[in-house]
Amino acid sequence: MANAHERVFSGVQPTGNLHLGNYLGAIKRFVELQDRFECLYCVVDLHAITVWQDPAELKKSIREVAAAFLAAGVDGTKHIVFNQSQVSAHAELAWIFNCVARLGWLNRMTQFKEKAGKDRENASVGLYAYPNLMAADILAYRATHVPVGEDQKQHLELARDIAQKFNNDFSKSIADLGLAEKFFPQPEPLIAGPATRVMSLRDGARKMSKSEPSDASRINLTDDADQIAAKIRKAKTDPLPLPETVEEMKTRPEADNLIGIYAALADSDAAAVIAQFGGQQFSQFKQALVDLTVSKLAPITAEMKRLVADPGHIDQVLGSGAERAEAIAGETMNHVKDIVGFVRR
User: Where is the motif named 'KMSKS' region mapped on this chain (predicted)?
Assistant: First the structure.
């Protein structure tokens, strides 16, 4: 039974080519959290445009991500599925947080440095400031928990810092309005299970990414059984048999990645996978991984294709979700405007 006082917010960017890393690191966990929390799952299209997107492709990708949520088992009637741009509170609160957050905080964000690369002067202001928008995404709903991968922990820490500074900066106003002293909560990270960070099939030191030039580096959620089998069989490995201890995995990144993927798909852990396959040749293990991956992803892929073929239904789900999200975020924004000192209708 969900606890009404515990609310989860999370989102996925609609930038095309959803892959196994998106599923294991985010979407699969969205489904698992439904029974424990009140959940809002967002297609974060405002984040997507921090780099240029083709408008027609962006619409297609928004619907595809929503379809993936539903196909994987997210219940869009019990919980809220929507796209970010339909709820104006995200952008409104992000501006207020732009005025609360400090430049020094954003300068420490390692993801901007990675994404902008050497040509930082040409990066968009949105790409630089998007951690403030991420904080607004979470805090507009006063979410208490956020499922995040290791690479997003720093952004969640920033959201916590922004929440604390807002509460401190406006403590008198918050008290005068009779609101809770800690108006914005300190959202807690939910980091659990194997394969929270799925790596490339071609390089165990690089994260699986939709932007990687080689399609063989990732398993797309739209891949068929033959494509999945070919990619796993060609996945990079070292010449040794599978590790026989969890400790040994730490120095063998490709083996660590494949074992982590198997464990996550099997709802198991690395120790159990090693107990079953440790010391075997990779060829045997890869066949078992093919069979497991196909059995888990094939139903999701089929349902995604069915849903994508009915964009009107997806738009209805997103629109209904946006109305419900707006009701929560609107209440937050009314309080925020009063706290800050704006005059409102």
Answer: 207-211
